[in-house]
Amino acid sequence: MDNALVIGGTRFIGRHLVSDLLDNDYDVTIFNRGNHDNPFSDDPRVQHIQGDRTDDEALRTAKLTVEPDAVFDCVAYKPGEVATAVDIFADVDAYVYISSGAAYGVEEVPKREGVTTLCECTDEQATDDSHDSYGPRKAEGDRVVFEAASRGINAMSVRPCIVYGPHDYTERLDYWIDRVLNYDRIVVPGDGTNIWHRAYVEDVASAMRVVAEEGEAGEAYNVGDRRLVTLEEMVDVIADAVGTDVEVVHAGERELAASGLSPDDFILYRDYPHVLSTEKLARLGWESTPVDEAMRRSVESHRESDRDGSEHDPGRDAEERVLSILDTL
């Protein structure tokens, strides 16, 4: 395979995917609406076709124009979109759909492909745009991929957990980087040992390519850092990348509540561990970036951007009240 069509391709995962494909000698075309700045607009190696992925004719035109060997679907958020895509691209060598670790419907440690139950998805959820239906929609997209493979279509999916790294418009990690850059004492909810598996974005990009090249039709592959870190360890890794020392201060529900906060007010906190097995993907030859290096690159990107994660900020005044309470105990 050497000719790739990326549906999306300019914001976060898709942007890194395009770079990874170029680094591996693919001819790349991106297909999107053009609503966001195109970081590859001056790169003659990347062609751009403007169109809406919900427009079936536009997708067919892109397919006929590019004649891709591999299609990477970065912006399929509803199962109907996946169903259309697998039919339009039924004869390509690989169709890779970005699903999500949120597709799993039960809490297990770790969550394994083909073992852990997926979310159910009602007809109403399948066409809904809410956050609550995100996991069910992604799970139903997986089932569309599995059914397509049963018809001989070379469709497969990847399931990343929380994705972080350069150009992350969600700014979830940026909140914690900003805290480490600006404060000596960092409030961490609970005892700091909670785990929400994360995946470095460049590794998600390489996983998509590896799955296209080496994966099996009808299979899903989890993507996540091969080394898991707790929330407190994540803060420590950020501090190391920044080159500073911070004091992590644990705050329980009672101390947080006294300042009008709860553990869930802190982004990337999750009460029950969310851990994905990545062994299946690793068997294809995929490797992950060491967490220390991934965080160093993420911190560099943060410093070069205007991202501060402020939309996730529980309020430093409230945190200071929590610190004052804890200092008196």
UniProtKB/TrEMBL annotation:
It comes from the Archaea. Residues 293-322 have a biased composition (Basic and acidic residues). Residues 4-224 form the NAD-dependent epimerase/dehydratase domain. InterPro entries: Epimerase_deHydtase, NAD(P)-bd_dom_sf. Residues 292-329 are annotated as: Disordered. Gene3D superfamilies: NAD(P)-binding Rossmann-like Domain. Belongs to the NAD(P)-dependent epimerase/dehydratase family. This is NAD-dependent epimerase/dehydratase family protein.
